[in-house]
Amino acid sequence: MTPKNGSLCLFAGNSNPDLARKIAEYLNMSLCGAVVKRFSDGEIQIEIDENVRTKDVFVIQSTCDPVNDNLVELLLMVDALKRASARRITAVIPYYGYARQDKKVAPRVPISAKLVADLLTTAGATRVITMDLHAGQIQGFFNIPVDNLYAAPVLLDYIKANFNKDLVIVSPDAGGVERARAFAKRLNAGLAIVDKRRSAPNKAQAMAVIGDVKDKIVIIQDDMIDTAGTLTEAVNAIVERGAREVHACCAHPVLSGPAVDRINASPITSIVCTDTIPLNEKAATCNKIKVLSISNLVGEAIIRSYTGDSVTSLFV
């Protein structure tokens, strides 16, 4: 659908230009002009090259690596649009950084997910469209509407097309059980859980597999893969229990640090992820990783938000 009267403007930051272009193609529109410059000391400067007065503006920017640069770029762009008299400003954040810091896990630590929500609201965002928040309750950190989309429809279509029987969906930890159960129900598959003990951030050791995976095709389902420590420990535990094949799917391929090396050394067969985050150079060369696009899903959410239509069907 093409917006009428040019009252919808689509901008993109530098975090994920390929996804932004695909979303623009789905909407049959062009990305509006904006220039991102840097002073010699690294400060970011934004210049908006379009008239946005009284218009509905959508800014596409994942707060992925480099997280702080992409976050500040988003905040400055939102502020520039607010000062240019945009009517509504929607921050489209396919990957919401700092989402893992959503509660106090020790004394004297910040709740960073809440701070980022406050920064976006103060900058001038009037709505947020995001995908697969690490914790659903982060929506409550905002005092503006939040549409938390799910990559499940895209991932489920792929799984249904490529896996037929003897399928078990596995949650790599207790926190992901609800998500894995929803996948298993829609695929009419079995469900299992890996009991994980974490000794420090980004360090995990799988202890036990709860459920039957022997001679099964296993798909480990998670919202993100960061250093792949949790994933590879889970894969090893599942293989030891006699699984025939082990695959994984996730929405956000963070894949930082030793992730790709761990994946290559692991007996995992494949990893299916989405393009909420662009693959880094090393991950792009890994033949175990397949990327599916969520551009149509996000594009549909944008147009429905613009027209005032329901987005409920996109949450399934």
User: Which strand order do you get reading across the main beta sheet?
Assistant: 10-9-8-11-12-13-14
- CATH architecture annotation name of the largest domain: 3-Layer(aba) Sandwich
CA radius of gyration: 20 Å
Number of domains: 2
Spans with pLDDT under 50 lasting ≥5 residues?
A: 1-5
**Largest pleated sheet:** 7 strands, mixed
The helix count comes to 9
From the N-terminal CA to the C-terminal CA, the straight-line distance is: 22 Å
What name is given to the CATH topology of the largest domain?
Answer: Rossmann fold
The strand count comes to 14
Order of helices and strands: EHEEEHEHEEHEHEEEHEHEHEH
CATH class of the largest domain: Alpha Beta
The mean pLDDT is 92
The share of residues in helices is 25-40%
What class would the helix/strand composition place it in? Answer: alpha/beta
Strand content: 25-35%
Family: Belongs to the ribose-phosphate pyrophosphokinase family. Class I subfamily.
Subcellular location: Cytoplasm
Subunit structure: Homohexamer.
GO cellular component, one term: ribose phosphate diphosphokinase complex
